[in-house]
Amino acid sequence: MPVLPEYDLSGKVAILATSGGDEAPQLASALAEAGATVFAVARRESSLESILAILGGEPHAGVSAEIATAEGLRRAMAAFDSQHSHADILVNDARSMFAKPFVQIAGEEWDEVQSRNLRATFLLCQEVGGRMVERGYGRIVNLISVLAERGMINGAAFSVSQAGLLALTRSLAVEWGRHNVRVNALGTGWSTGEDIPLEVQREELLVRYTPLRRKGRPADVGPLLVFLCSESCDYNTGQPIYVDGGLNAHP
Q1: Is the dihedral of CA 106, 110, 111, 112 positive or negative?
Q2: Per-residue pLDDT averaged across 217-222, rounded?
Q3: CA-only gyration radius of the chain, Å
Q4: Where are the beta strands (DSSP E) in 65-167?
Q5: How far apart (Å, rounded) are the C-alpha atoms in residues 79 and 14?
Q6: Assuming Cys at both sites, which of 7, 25, 28, 105 could form a disulfide with 230, CB separation 3.0 to 4.6 Å?
Q7: 12-24: per-residue pLDDT in tens?
Q8: pTM flag (> 0.85)
Q9: Peptide bond preceding 218: is omega within 30 degrees of 0, i.e. cis?
Q10: What share of the chain is helix, strand, coil (3-state, %, to 5)?
Q11: Which of 236, 189, 239 lies closest to 217 in space, CA to CA?
């Protein structure tokens, strides 16, 4: 991915926290290609291995931890602090999908979705963002789904978690703007990490509903992520910016 000089992340340290998914390794790769040193925090060991495999080793590193818990957060930050003195960039990829008819959702399931997607981001923003405020510099990007601003059958629990992430993004942008910490949301639509022919994709109703008539790819997200993490992102904060093939513009 060619990187414009004004978007260069050389010398920056980035924390990428993910609940897992096809896009996480490519997000890490985009940050690394732009020059950042990436420290990955993954909920599953398999997700961490996928990210580290694409990063190719030092100076990049990571840890597997459930950051929705206080113990997991302490473990993650201890591993990070053993290698770095500060973080310039925090990317939260908390999009752990859950679909079920609303009346069938158990209370424990609801709590688990909000914990994985919202509580984990809250805790990491509080810990890492607090340090950024003290230093007077930081870039935070929260990955969200288009369902943060749309409804979907069987999607209530997940949509609420994504709407909460968007509200958190806006609130932190207002609270931390005077400390030179920019907080934005990067929204995605229906995406895939597989190389699926267009004619096959278009057999799906959701793809035909999307104005650009294809699913998103991880490569579609990387360039915008790099911009939002760069120093050039100086007058953007509190904004949800969607890379969704026009889905959110659709009535």
Answers
A1: positive
A2: 82
A3: 17
A4: 89-93, 138-145
A5: 14
A6: 7
A7: 999 999 987 778 8
A8: yes
A9: no
A10: 45, 15, 35
A11: 189
> At 144, which amino acid appears?
I
Residue whose entry in the numeric block shows the structure tokens 């908390």: 94
Give me the chain's average pLDDT, please: 89
- Measure the CA angle with vertex 19, ends 173 and 133; round to 5°: 25
Tokens 């459930």 belong to residue: 66
How many residues in total does the chain contain?
A: 251
Average pLDDT over residues 128-137: 97
Please tell me the distance from the alpha carbon of residue 108 to that of residue 125, in angstroms, as a whole number: 24
Integer CA distances (angstroms), 64 to 16, 39, 106, 113, 201, in order? 12, 11, 27, 19, 33
Task: Give the dihedral sign, CA 78/83/85/90.
Answer: negative
Report, as an integer, the average pLDDT of 84-109. Answer: 93
Q: What is the DSSP string of 146-182?
A: GGGSS--TT-HHHHHHHHHHHHHHHHHHHHHGGGTEE
The span from the CA of 197 to the CA of 48, in Å, is 28
Q: Tell me the CB-side half-sphere exposure of residue 175, using CA atoms within 13 A.
A: 12
The amino acid occupying position 117 is N
